[in-house]
What we know:
64% of the residues lie in helices and 8% in strands.
Amino acid sequence: xxxGDFSNVEIEIRQQIDRWVASLEAEANHVSAKRDAALGxxxxxxxxxxxxxxxxxxxxxxxIVSVLRDSTDPETKKHAVTLLLNLSIHPNVxxxxxxxxxxxxxxQVLKYGDCEARANAAAALFSxxxxxxxxxxxxxxxxxxxxxxxxxxxxxxxxGKKDAASAIFDLAICHENKAIAVRAGVIPxxxxxxxxxxxxIVDEALATLAILxxxxxxxxxxxRVGALPLLIDIIxxxxxxxxxxxxxxxxxxxxxxxxxxxxxxxxGVCGPxxxxxxxxxxxxRRKARKLLDLQRHAQHRHGHFGARSxxxxxxxxxxxxxxxxxxxxxxxxxxxxxxxxxxxxINFVSGSGAHRVGLARxxxxxxxxxxxxxSSTSGxxxxxxxxxxxxxxxxxxQSQFACIVD
Length: 406
């Protein structure tokens, strides 16, 4: 394209931008006119940094925020929040968007918009928070922002969950936001995402858990939901960055609670840590060495881990331990994960082999924990304790805990 032609095209685009901005600013304009203007500006700012800069210099941001706040048309709101997302990519515009009062309208779209709008609202919060400590604190101080991101992490589309995880990760760089996220219930859905590789959000979920694990409440909650076996699996086999993050989380858990050091030893963490010392990233190697030091110190203080029974291990690691609520030998059908609140899992080795056992709270009982061995039927995960675990293990489980025996 010749230089003159390019100049003419650029002039025409800027003239169209001027018309659309004027349409957003005009109070008397019809809903459809504002919707078309927001959509047009959204399209022009998707890939063009020049258009983003030009719209910002036109003083259009207050008008865009006003449309986002006041419009009752869901499509207009979606285009407006996406337009703000596009504009926020420009480093000099983030503070102007926040100063125009965009935070609350963006959060409202995050809570009540359709799937695309909610994902774009989450992405907008992520973009506005990056490289600015002030905005991180402002967003975290909003009553609904982080809880709405956590809700999207639970029920959104794959893209929505990824945008929510990225936003929570960046907001959690601000220390005060870590506790807000943990109290909003962010840990269980993040751990669930580690189990669901098909969604492709393991990297984001693990990185977010790593930063939340630096807070005492995050450490306690990650331990409570039974994430240790998953972390050890990731240290054993995953990408170098994920191994590093998993080791970082495990180190925080073990430093905060000696029981986690004991449990991770019982789960066989020493072998994967030894390998990580040789093959991991520089940070992963340092964390692996620190974890192995903790293991050695713990063995020196308490003797060899194998001297303690499996039931002692469980009793020391489960805060909400209750006596058995089922009689020995009671039969119960398998229960799908959707029907039973899942509280975590534990790996252990008995004379009959290695097993993974789930911890769950039955809906029918306010107290008690069920120990459930995982099996797969027709593609669905079911949990039950079966005779294949071995009579010795079953006797321990049935005498100490609420056991569902299939």
